[in-house]
Each structure stands twice: as C-alpha cells, then as structure tokens.
Design a protein that fits this description.
Layout: H1 12-27, E1 40-45, H2 51-62, E2 66-70, H3 84-94, E3 97-102, H4 107-114, E4 119-124, H5 130-144, E5 150-155, H6 162-171, E6 177-182, H7 191-199, E7 204-207, H8 210-213, E8 219-222, H9 233-239, H10 247-250, E9 258-260, H11 281-299
Parallel strand pairs: 1-2, 1-3, 3-4, 5-6, 5-8, 6-7, 8-9
The structure holds N-carbamoyl-L-aspartate (NCD).
N-carbamoyl-L-aspartate binds next to helix 2 and helix 6.
C-alpha cells in the first residue's frame, strides 16, 4: 500500500506515468467514468480549503466513486480531543482512500502510519502540499511540453507558502532549472531550501523587485501572503500587498511566459491580468482534477 506525503514519494518515471494518465483522462473522460464504482474517498480537512477538497471530491465523483468526510475540525471528533491516529483507524473502516489536510506539519504522516488505506497529504501546515505540486507539474508539462530547461520565478510568501516548498522540492529533480525567489526580506524562502540548492549546485537567486527579473522568466509562480501563519496582524497588513502583478508588469515578460498561482488569490494578481493568455491559473485548477483522478486510480492500483 502506498501513501502520498511528499512529491518525492514518486520517482520522475512514476510521475511521467501519472501525468500521461491525467492527460488521457483529460482527452477521454468517459473511459474512466466507472473506474472507481464501489469505492469511497474520505476527505478529512482540519483546515479551510475550497479547491483541494472540492477537486478531490470532484475527482472521485468523476471516477464513479463516492465521497464522505468533514470540512472543518470543529465538526469532527478532533474537537473532543481525538488524535489523528485514532481518527484514521476509524476512517480506514469506512473508506478505501483518504485525503487529509491538517494545520500541524507531519499530521498526515502520523496518520499514514496507523492507516490501513492510502493516505494523501492534502497540505500540512507550512510544510508540504504534494497534490498542488502534482497539479503544478502537470500544468507546466501540458502547456510548456517539458519539465526542465527553464527559469522559474516564485513570488510572494516564500517563507510560509507550502506550495512553494513542495514545488521546489519536486523541480530540483529535473535538468537545467534556474530558480529566482522574489520576496520581501521577511518572507524569504527558508534556509533549509537554499542550503539544499547549494548542496546540489542548482542555480538560484533572491531578489526583491519583480520588475527587474520579469524579462528573464519562463514561468512565474505567484502566491498569496499566508495570513493564517503570521504571528501578528501588523506584519501581515504591512506585507500583504507587497506584490501586485498587473498589465504593465506583464508587458515586461516573454510572450510565452506562463503565470501560475495555486489560488486563492487575494490582491497579488490584478483581475485585469486574467484575460492575458499567459495567465493559466484557472486552467491549472482544472488540471488539479485530472491529476487527482490519476492519483486516486494509481493509489488504488486501478491505473492499468
Ligand atoms: C494553497 C494552500 O492551501 O496551501 N491553496 C491550495 O490548496 N490551492 C495555497 C494558499 O492557500 O495560498
């Protein structure tokens, strides 16, 4: 039995297979409409979510399966003091696969150790968000035709943003990638990441201004300032509108640069950018359903 805790749990060959499957689902959804008939997905969300939980539910429903779960810790027995280890033992009796989001780093991992069904980490605190990373990689591979040979700018809250941490982790395995980290001083990417990049001799630079680097980027990954992980409101208010991607900044970029964003967006991309064909964040959300369908099939051993 396999779980998904980090994007590195799959080799790059396994990821290629997963993405091929996701692209086939995109082209021939009817072939998969009954693939998970009789199976149940549990979504256990101890933290708010729109896209991740609903895209999992949509994915399982589109595979012909059913979904149970809770969308908030207050409505689960966690509010009575139940541990995730106990909860997952119970969920294992009710479902065939579980997607779990938790504010504590490592909680889905703890659950997976006691689980008799596959557990998918749907985001653990500021740590990892592997299914968002699978979504991001599928989007890049489908729209750029390759994973590798590009300069990617990651912009915004690089300190608390788990999607950023997961994506960097996953991208270091591909060839010829240069990272540009664009953030205010207070929201720089954690040292453990830059240490890892230096160790592996992967080129990166850190800049504060988006404009200066825009012309060099093949991909721009925008992120929201993670309000819920700030220790004080004042810092959040000071930093939340540090970056706003608008039409005049887009004019500095390559004609085929792509803008990604895991969403939700707050103010960091102005809505006028949505009409630019290079803005692919809504398409990205659609890829999130295909990749989660492929992932459910793979973890349930129904991918062949
Ligand atoms: C992200 C998350 O939850 O980390 N959202 C998502 O799952 N698409 C990004 C965010 O909340 O900023």
């Amino acid at each position: 039995m396999r779980h998904l805790m980090s994007p590195l749990d799959f080799t790059t060959q396994e990821l290629d297979r997963l993405f091929d499957l996701a692209n086939d689902i995109e082209r021939n959804p009817q072939n998969y409409a009954h693939a998970c008939e009789g199976n149940i997905l549990a979504t256990c969300f101890y933290e708010p979510s729109t896209r991740t939980r609903l895209s999992f539910e949509s994915a399982m429903t589109r595979l012909g399966g059913r979904v149970i779960g809770f969308a908030d810790a207050a409505s689960s027995s966690a509010s009575k003091g139940e541990s995730v280890s106990d909860t997952i033992r119970i969920i294992s009796c009710y479902a065939d696969i579980c997607a779990m989001r938790h504010p504590k780093e490592g909680a889905p991992m703890v659950a997976s150790e006691k689980s008799s069904i596959p557990v998918i980490n749907a985001g653990d605190g500021g740590h990892q968000h592997p299914t968002q990373t699978l979504t991001d990689l599928l989007t890049i591979r489908s729209l750029k035709g390759r994973l590798g040979n590009f300069t990617i700018g990651l912009c915004g809250d690089l300190k608390f943003g788990r999607t950023v941490h997961s994506l960097i982790n996953a991208l270091v395995r591909y060839d010829n990638i240069r990272f540009v980290f664009i953030s205010p001083e207070e929201l720089r990417v954690p040292d453990y990441i830059t240490d890892m990049l230096r160790e592996q001799e992967i080129p990166y630079e850190e800049v504060i201004r988006l404009e200066q680097i825009m012309p060099e980027l093949d991909l721009l990954y925008m992120t929201r300032v993670q309000k819920e992980r700030f220790f004080n409101e004042e810092d959040y208010v000071r930093l939340k509108d540090f970056y706003i991607l608008n039409v005049s900044k887009m004019a500095l970029a390559k004609k085929d640069m792509l803008v990604l964003h895991p969403l939700p967006r707050v103010n960091e991309i102005s809505v006028e950018v949505d009409d630019d064909p290079r803005a692919v964040y809504f398409k990205q959300a659609q890829y999130g359903v295909y990749v989660r369908m492929a992932l459910i099939l793979t973890l349930l051993g129904k991918d062949r």
